[in-house]
Design a protein that fits this description.
The chain has 14 helices and 3 strands. With 305 residues, the protein is mainly alpha-helical. The chain has 2 domains: 96 residues, DNA polymerase, domain 1 (Orthogonal Bundle), CATH 1.10.150.130; 181 residues, Orthogonal Bundle (hpI Integrase, Chain A). Helix 2 packs across helix 3, helix 7 packs antiparallel against helix 9 and helix 7 crosses helix 11.
């Protein structure tokens, strides 16, 4: 969003991408939010405004407009976070101070427990995927490998889609993953996932032998191209639909991994490392999931609950 009149947001976004290592998805979201903010300020102040002159009513008016547009509290919170981050950048690099932006409070978010598959759903999903892959067809075999890797490692959709062959070490049963902020981590890969990956990679070899195919990408289409995040999403949703997984998303496999690990007694810090969370508080949401389920069992089973 380069704007000759106000080049600072473009500078800030370049800073996020090049120096801070934020993902393209995050940079794109911040770009939309900051463009909405500058367009609102142009209308609110009739075009005559500076970054330092934006006041409390301007910030509140922007949040009010987001609400009128029907944005969720979570989206509004992200937009305000983008504005506050921009102002921190402006203060550090341009000497612009703005108390109103610094004091603006992020809307209180409703706590949402993550969606995940229980043990029975998980077993049903894998039984369906395994039966489908028995014929050694490329598509079903690949889809089973994707499912196994998601559940075995808890990696994100973008992380799985970005995997290259050199990132997999099936002799040591591990994979190198590039997470948020381009941070790398090593995650263990379970034996069932390793077997599924080996079966898939054998079929993949024949496909990538053709010219014009992507030889580096782990997961590819029948045409030999790297599967996009959207493509992987569709495949997983088809598997969910086949077993009646209403309300589940690809991220639910990550939630399932974390919930099942903690249920089995895994250390919270270890799960944090495996998930690539920067903060332990992000991982702690899965302990709430376990507690809520225990409460439900208690209510159903205890005579005087």
């Amino acid at each position: 969003m380069p704007d000759p009149k106000r080049p600072e947001p473009a500078e800030f976004l370049t800073h996020l991408e090049k120096e801070r290592g934020h993902s393209p998805h995050t940079v794109k979201a911040y770009c939309r939010d900051l463009q909405a903010f500058t367009e609102f300020c142009d209308r609110h102040y009739a075009g005559a405004w500076t970054w330092g002159a934006v006041d409390r009513t301007g910030i509140r008016g922007f949040l009010g407009e987001l609400q009128r547009r029907g944005l969720t509290k979570r989206s509004a919170a992200r937009a305000l976070s983008a504005v506050r981050s921009l102002y921190r950048y402006l203060q550090l690099h341009h000497g612009v101070t703005n108390a109103a932006a610094r004091a603006a409070k992020i809307p209180r978010l409703d706590k949402r427990l993550p969606t995940y598959l229980d043990r029975e759903q998980t077993q049903r999903l894998f039984e369906w995927a395994e039966a489908r892959a028995e014929g050694d067809e490329f598509g079903p075999t690949r889809d089973l490998a994707i499912l196994e890797l998601f559940y075995s490692t808890g990696i994100r959709l973008s992380e799985l889609g970005g995997l290259n062959l050199e990132d997999l070490d099936l002799l040591s049963d591990q994979a190198k993953v590039r997470g948020k902020g381009r941070k790398e981590r090593i995650v263990p890969v379970g034996s069932r996932a390793v077997l599924a990956l080996r079966r898939y990679l054998n079929l993949r070899e024949d496909l990538v032998a053709r010219p014009g195919t992507d030889r580096r990408a782990v997961f590819i289409s029948r045409r030999g191209r790297r599967l996009s995040a959207r493509g992987i999403q569709k495949l997983v949703h088809l598997m969910f639909d086949a077993v009646g997984g209403d309300g589940l998303r690809v991220h639910s496999l990550r939630h399932t991994f974390a919930t099942h690990m903690l249920d089995a007694g895994a250390d919270l810090r270890a799960v944090q490392e495996l998930l690539g969370h920067a903060s332990l508080s992000t991982t702690q949401v899965y302990t709430h999931t376990s507690v809520e389920r225990l409460k439900k069992v208690y209510q159903q089973a205890h005579p005087r609950a």
